[in-house]
Write a structure and sequence with these properties.
Arc Repressor Mutant, subunit A; Putative TetR family transcriptional regulator (chains A, B); 185 residues; mainly alpha; DNA-binding transcription factor activity (chains A, B); Tetracycline Repressor, domain 2; elongated; homodimer; transcription cis-regulatory region binding (chains A, B)
């Protein structure tokens, strides 16, 4: 793929993730193309169907999670307390709470397509490893499950309004710190 | 007001609060009437305009908050730790995170109408008293502001999906307990 083609594709996926988060996955694809600064024909050349675009967004988010997890697998060994703290803030910065509700609504009725489960399991397996490391370091209570932990991050990072206030990030960072303290033994 | 008229009015406000939370304050009033089990004419007799109905919903929520606060002003004196714990769970049970985003969207552009500020201040003043009492009892760190505290409750009680899973309440209760621990000094 040529670099401008790659840039177009990435711009479409970014725009789709933002618009899906704010307005749901049924947002007009013309709005996605416009937000990405490309023509609708280019969008359809990259993603022949809406489901292709949804899949690319899901893979993009899973990729973000996996990149963060890989980075902190090493860092948590060097300095468990700082590593765990920074890992949870980095996870929250992906703001899973903005896109997960839109995907849950889409997949809620019919069930998620087959490609979702392996991605989710890959993300959760590494998260499980990091959580276990944090428990071993006395940073998280033993009875905290990976599912609870992950739902907590999603709840905290779901914006209260589709037009978030300017201090939304400050509030989320505050709440993540409260969350980190609350998870301790 | 006769008792069946009162019951009708309460049913309309309840239905409006539920539908506003799930679908926004611009939901068709015919849907509100249907959910309340009354005719549209009865709805308009009680609430001539949509803004009248929105106001009734806001007053209803403020009333729920104030009732919980009044109850726990006494209980927190008897047993600060249990009283504070139960107060925060009772606040969360009102699920401010379901309706606040819909109202924020409505009032975001034009600003909230005049009747909102005194209601909000009344609710926050008593909450401030309870928070101060919890700080005095060593249950909450001194640097936790009433605004942070309240935004935290709203974030935690915002459902991740409009069709919440069956274990949504269990997750929220878990997260409230983590929150309570995280607020401690």
């Amino acid at each position: 793929m040529r670099s401008d083609a790659r840039a177009n594709r990435a711009a479409i996926v970014d725009a789709a993730r933002t618009l899906f988060s704010g307005r749901g996955v049924d947002v007009p694809l013309s709005a996605v193309a416009e937000a990405a600064g490309i023509g609708i024909a280019t969008l359809y050349r990259n993603f022949p169907t809406r489901d292709d675009l949804i899949r690319a967004v899901v893979e993009d988010i899973a990729g973000c999670f996996q990149a963060v997890e890989r980075e902190y697998l090493a860092r948590i060994e060097e300095d468990p307390e700082q590593g765990w703290h920074d890992f949870v803030h980095a996870l929250a910065a992906i703001r899973p709470g903005t896109i997960i509700p839109a995907l849950a609504e889409k997949f809620g009725g019919t069930g998620a397509p087959d490609y979702v489960a392996p991605l989710r399991e890959g993300v959760l397996a590494t998260q499980q490893t990091l959580l276990a490391r944090a428990k071993k370091a006395g940073l998280v209570r033993d009875d905290v499950s990976a599912k609870n932990f992950q739902l907590g991050i999603a709840s905290i990072t779901r914006p209260l309004s589709e037009q978030p206030e300017a201090d939304c990030d400050t509030h989320t960072a505050w709440l993540i710190d409260v969350y980190l303290r609350g998870l301790r033994p």
